[in-house]
Write a structure and sequence with these properties.
The chain contains 6 helices and no strands. The chain is mainly α and about 140 residues long. Helix 1 packs parallel to helix 4, helix 2 packs antiparallel against helix 4 and helix 5 crosses helix 6. It is elongated and about 70 Å long. It starts with a helix and ends with a helix.
Length: about 140
């Protein structure tokens, strides 16, 4: 339980740092699977002590209990793996690696303002940059 809570605080803190620097770190499917397994485990823990489950026999109640702990173990593993994945995506924000250092390519996307300027100046290809179409629509609405 402590690992899960610690992960949430760490990831939330990194998200706040990213937001303060104008960046967004996309969530991965690992985090989504973690959430699903956590929810299923919580439901199983709540249900395992209910009267209908107890009325089905002690062996069934034991099976539900074992299943609940197994699902929670998977959720715990996914918690750790998804935190490591998130921190690896944000390592340039927390000081583990400079932002533009890597395999010879830029590690972050341009900001919305940079994309809008490039789109509105006509220097990018709209079919390759779907954000350009939305930037043009927004600019047309505003002014």
């Amino acid at each position: 339980m402590l690992v899960i809570v610690a992960r949430e605080f760490i990831v939330s803190g990194v998200r706040m740092v990213a937001a303060s620097k104008g960046e967004v770190i996309a969530a991965s499917y690992l985090g989504k699977f973690k959430t699903v397994f956590q929810m299923v485990a919580i439901v199983l823990f709540v249900v395992k002590g209910s009267a209908p489950i107890a009325g089905m026999g002690s062996s069934f109640a034991l099976a539900v209990n074992v299943l609940a702990w197994a699902v929670m173990a998977v959720a715990l593993m996914l918690t750790v793996v998804s935190m490591v994945d998130y921190l690896s995506k944000a390592r340039h924000l927390i000081g583990f690696r400079p932002k533009d250092q890597g395999r010879g390519r830029k590690t972050s996307r341009p900001t919305c303002e940079e994309t809008a300027k490039r789109c509105l100046s006509g220097s990018s290809k709209p079919r390759r940059r779907p954000a350009c179409a939305s930037a043009r629509r927004k600019a047309a609405r505003e002014g």
